[in-house]
């Protein structure tokens, strides 16, 4: 028997309470029974987002939320700045290009974070910038960007919206939507919110809603003005993902019971223990600056293929992690400490990494990483 452990940066494990709630008999999305469920979900998301703004629930993956963030607030030919430091920065570029936006790209070396001074320099030089697109966590590299500092810079430019992909960062990091002035922030169900894939969340500031009035890009399914009106009546415009929204309420209850600040601290502790343990095993971190509390990208030992580490972890030891992408493929593997994760998930992960390295012939002292991990988590 091979027991399986899901330690990838999405999808992440789902708590039993949410699984049980989602197994209840189906109800109709237009029935009165669904109204309080949807209302509770909307209210709970505002708490997690730390905002008084609308947080809309979309029946899609997080990428659908990213598309909606482009199509509802911008026009073809609008000049926007995109921070590109990994695969998901590249995704912002692809979406913006698909809808005809003019892109000013700020390239950041993989494994590094954006120096906010570079953004300030670009915004001073370029006139008429309508938006700045950035990841909170660049999941492909395990790097976090300083959203507070970035928001402070964008605020000085009244015409520009700050658009943040927080799909991996939501609840793993303290992202203060209102206090920092984040105009549009996208989240997803399958990461820190501990649910199956299928829901995207998008918070929208009043400044962004004003820009939505000027947007002429064609939209149908992802029409946020229509969604806003419907969701204020606790309905989605099209068929609601009833089961997932029921599960969402359970996940929000779990987070609220733990306390949002404690959730941030737990993610920070698990991330710290993971990073120190892999360093004790002689491996480096791919994130050279501001490593994320959602996922740790680990450099494979010299002479060992990172893809083999990822595959042996899964096939021989039952631990599903993630490999590297594009230029990082074969060089790294990634372990998440996100959502429904506790200290023993991390101890299991480090133990499995030690055994995998031993299996692949890498020089490793069994128990060395686990010991460091346990000392930190004790």
From TrEMBL:
Supply the alphabetized keyword list. Aminotransferase, Oxidoreductase, Pyridoxal phosphate, Transferase
Domain called Aminotransferase class V: residue spans:
5-328
Record InterPro entries = Aminotrans_V_dom, Aminotrans_V_PyrdxlP_BS, PyrdxlP-dep_Trfase, PyrdxlP-dep_Trfase_major, PyrdxlP-dep_Trfase_small, SP_NH2Trfase/AEP_transaminase
- Cite the GO molecular-function annotations of the record: oxidoreductase activity; transaminase activity
Q: Which family does it belong to?
A: Belongs to the class-V pyridoxal-phosphate-dependent aminotransferase family.
Xref: PROSITE patterns: AA_TRANSFER_CLASS_5
This chain belongs to which protein, by name? Answer: Class V aminotransferase
Enzyme class, first EC level, given as a word: oxidoreductase
- List its EC numbers: 1.12.-.-
Pfam families given in the database record = Aminotran_5 (PF00266)
Q: Which cofactor does it need?
A: pyridoxal 5'-phosphate
